[in-house]
Design brief:
The radius of gyration is 19 Å and the shape is globular. Strand 1 and strand 2 form a beta hairpin. The protein is built from eleven helices and eleven strands. The chain starts with a strand and ends in a 10-residue tail after the last helix. The chain has two domains: 204 residues, 2-enoyl-CoA Hydratase, Chain A, domain 1; 47 residues, Lyase 2-enoyl-coa Hydratase, Chain  A, domain 2. By secondary structure, it is an alpha/beta fold. A seven-stranded mixed beta sheet has the order 1-2-3-4-6-8-11, with helices on both faces.
Length: 266
């Protein structure tokens, strides 16, 4: 094992190119609170800069993936609540932005229900594997809040503006099958198979052409904000840059030689 980090709110290990972050407060429902936001931001800052991280697996212990924001802590804030929200989101939003932009693809393994801001954390992953019995809830409007954690971007990029707006306005709860049909998740598997399938996928990605994955992520993150002509040029520039990598040379050589490529992540 290359690295092991244990915090109060999650564990993170790096092994053979795979960074595995496990939310680790099952007795509390793996909530988002100030401590989680700080620790998660530091962790993502670390792994997003490590050249040995070639994919990320995000999962959780317990029967819930995450209940979202820690409402018990928020209630205690009283008049200080707006300042607390800005402090928490300063860390959490930076972490999610870096997770979305890092070159390593992120796989979310969701075995239990997910609600509130954690829906965005899940939706920010590049691939989401969810259990058949899991439910996804938009809890914000139910408690008089508006969305945070990048929800209006990450969820919208997956299911579209109109459907995302409905999800948040009505405070909907989606079952796994509905979430799959909308594109909010990518794979629905039997409850007991989620972690194994998600890890298999993450390890496969960890053995792949990491720079190419990063380029794919960047191109898709900006496609809705650019004109066709701008995106075509960006594709050309990105492909030219990617073609200079060792993995691109190996991929072409392996294809010509009719063998499986061995990618080094560079």
């Amino acid at each position: 094992m290359d690295l092991a980090i244990s915090t109060k709110t999650f564990d993170c290990t790096i092994d053979d190119g795979l960074a595995h972050i496990v939310l680790n407060q099952p007795d509390r429902g793996n909530p988002i609170d100030g401590e989680f936001c700080r620790e998660f931001n530091l962790c993502i800052a670390e792994i997003s800069e490590r050249t040995d991280v070639r994919s990320v697996l995000l999962s959780a212990r317990g029967r819930l993936f995450s209940v979202g924001g820690d409402l018990v802590s928020l209630v205690k804030q009283g008049d200080a609540l707006p300042r607390t929200i800005k402090a928490w989101t300063a860390d959490l939003h930076a972490a999610i932005a870096r997770m979305v932009r890092m070159r390593a693809p992120v796989v979310a393994s969701v075995s239990g229900n997910v609600a509130g801001g954690s829906v965005s954390l899940m939706a920010a992953a590049d691939l989401v594997v969810i259990a058949e019995s899991a439910r996804i809830s938009s809890a914000f409007a139910k408690i008089g809040f508006s969305p945070d954690s990048g929800s209006t971007t990450t969820v919208t990029r997956r299911i579209g503006v109109a459907r995302a707006r409905r999800f948040f306005l009505l405070g909907e709860t989606l079952d796994a099958k509905t979430a799959l049909s909308l594109g909010l998740v990518d794979f629905v598997v039997p409850d007991g198979a989620v972690q194994g399938e998600a890890e298999r996928m993450a390890r496969e990605l960890a053995a792949g052409p990491t720079e190419a994955y990063g380029a794919i992520k960047r191109l898709f993150s900006q496609t809705l904000d650019r004109s066709l002509e701008s995106q075509l040029e960006e594709e050309a520039q990105t492909l030219a840059a990617t073609s200079r990598t060792a993995d691109a040379r190996e991929g072409v050589k392996a294809f010509v030689e009719k063998r499986k490529p061995v990618f080094a992540g560079r």
